[in-house]
Amino acid sequence: MATIYKTKVGKQGRIVLPRDIRDAFGVDPGDEVTIIVKGRELTLRLQKAPEDPLEDLTKLADTVSIGLPAKKLKERADEERQRAFPKR
User: Fold this and answer.
1) Cα separation of 46 and 34, whole Å?
2) Which of 39, 63, 70, 81 shows a CA-CA span of 20 to 30 A to 20?
3) CA-CA distance, 29 to 86, in Å (whole number)?
4) How many CA within 13 A on the CB side of residue 15?
5) Tell me, what's the pLDDT at 48?
6) pTM of the predicted model, to two decimals?
């Protein structure tokens, strides 16, 4: 059975998700919502913001093949930063 919620669109086109929905889905500030348009139907998909964006990027980097693993890329980036930093 579907639950129906009614909300108004604000002056800048914003909508507010009712508290029941935010609580049920754990919606927090910073989470992203993808809007899918199919004909005259809108579907919202929630994408939780990562708790640790760097860890998220590291996992993503492991899936991208550019010849070096993420750990090696980080080591090289650290070395480059050290070389670029002026020594006293």
Assistant:
1) 7
2) 39
3) 40
4) 12
5) 79
6) 0.51
Identify the CATH number of the domain in which residue 27 sits: 2.10.260
Structural domain boundaries enclosing 80: 53-84
Q: Give the residue among 24, 23, 6 at the shortest CA–CA distance from 15.
A: 6
* Number of domains observed in the structure of the chain: 2
Are the C-beta atoms of 27 and 17 separated by less than 8 Å? yes
- Residue 53 to residue 36: CA distance in whole angstroms: 25
Report pLDDT for 14.
92
Do 27 and 60 share a domain, yes or no?
Answer: no
CB 5 within 8 A of CB 18: yes
The tokens for 1 are 């059975």
Is 63 part of a structural domain of the chain?
Answer: yes
